[in-house]
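Entry 14. Structure prediction run on the chain below.
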Amino acid sequence: MNKLRFIKDEGSAFYKELNEQIEQYFVQNGLKKTGNAKMFFKIFLYFGLDILFYALMIASDSVLAFYAFYLLMGLSVLLTAFNVSHDAAHGVAVKSKFWNRLLFSLSFNLQGNNAYVWGKNHNESHHLYTNIEGSDIDVLNNPLFRMTESQPLQWYHRYQFIYAPFLYLFYSINWFFFRETLMLFNLSSRTIKVEIPRIEAVKLVIYKLLYIGYMIVIPIYLLPFGWTVVLMAFLLNHFIISLLFVAVLGVAHLSDYVSHPVPDKDHELNMSWPKLQLLTSIDYHAESKFLNWTLGGFNAHAVHHLLPNVCHVHYLKIIPIFKALAQKHQLTYMEMSYGESLASHFRFLKMMGRSEHLIPMRYEG
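Output returned:
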């Protein structure tokens, strides 16, 4: 990973005052930045739903009930990841470091994905160097998609905005079967090589086998529906999870409004880190109570990137502070409707498939 340096600019002053006012808000209201009673309720709710739907699935007496509970369980697990895993990875779901680590490990590893790999690279790569190729691990180098100017433009990229939704169906299956497995052999579609400690490599394999066991093997063994019915449910579940996952997160950083900064030869960016976060993130309906509850604050992505030490249950109260300070320091905070952000995502795919260079659109808030 290329480590970069930032400069000081108006974003630096904004970030300093933001932290001061956020700290003041929590002190004056006698609150902790970690999860509150609402967060505890959500933790018990989502883990409870995971267990409930699995129990109902494994006790199903009809194919229709089996599919319904299997897919509801998959949706519940995804919402657990949005609402619990993510904040726990940042150490803010609860106050205890131990319980944050445990919640993150349980909720992530039991999905068949390695918590260590994702957590380390999410915090140390994506959050620090958002949208910068060679530094942000979430910048893909997949030959089927062209996401950065440095990637060669192929004739078929002209159609990537059309075939993208079909390939998005395979996002979580690729993550589970190939993405982390290839990392074990230093092979990946990521622009950064990831070294996995031996103990984590062992855990990676064990949890994937466990996941296959309780999602495929146990239902086949205990239920009378046959392996084809179970396998179809497994695939359909991953297709739905993939579309929802990409729909929620894909629009945040892959948009024709956001920047893809390139550092100079001395590995320096001509902007501050806070300004980078504002230039590379799209928020949608940031103050929506429903989306804050269901998506765990992922719809307020710029806010999260700048304040990862704050649990998402506090976002609705601090977003007005965030917006007012961005305006005061004459920084652009990009927020729009979900429909606009989705349209922007596909315009980005279309532009990157037809033009060598990407010039971000001017945001008019």
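The two ends are 34 Å apart (CA to CA).
Filed with the rest of this week's runs.
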